[in-house]
Specification:
mainly alpha
């Protein structure tokens, strides 16, 4: 189960790092969005008579919180994965919580989330993180 724990931690670090990059791409898109809409109107791709321009004001209000949530959950996932690599119980719990969020990100997040949950809830894994203390027997 040790190998599975290491694989889960490394995969989560890689996956969550990529999600952080994607969150920054969304933020860059928001910063560039007004210019993009202006160019599309100028090129004739968007007809201002057919699409109310106020609709485009909503897009940044949606993308910024989504990017922020992606970044926060990803940082938590990376911290949890590092905790799992160091065999810390808080890391296992944190990564378990983040893994439930992964289930919503079809298809890769679902696969990684399911695998992570299976590994982190395994009885052998729980024993690794919470070893039973040995009580010395005195005669």
């Amino acid at each position: 189960m040790e190998k599975h724990l290491n694989v889960v931690a490394i995969l989560n670090i890689v996956y969550r790092s990529l999600v952080i990059v994607w969150a920054f791409v969304l933020l860059a898109l928001v910063a560039w969005f007004d210019d993009l809409i202006g160019e599309l109107v100028q090129w004739g791709s968007i007809n201002p008579n057919e699409v109310p321009m106020g609709v485009f004001d909503i897009v940044p209000l949606i993308l910024v919180p989504i990017a922020g949530l992606m970044a926060i959950v990803s940082v938590a996932g990376i911290l949890g994965a590092v905790g799992v690599l160091k065999k810390k119980e808080w890391g296992r719990i944190l990564l378990l919580i983040v893994s439930f969020f992964n289930l919503l990100r079809i298809p890769l997040g679902t696969i990684l989330g399911g695998y992570s949950i299976w590994v982190l809830l395994n009885d052998e894994t729980i024993r690794i993180f919470n070893p039973v203390p040995v009580i010395p027997v005195t005669a």
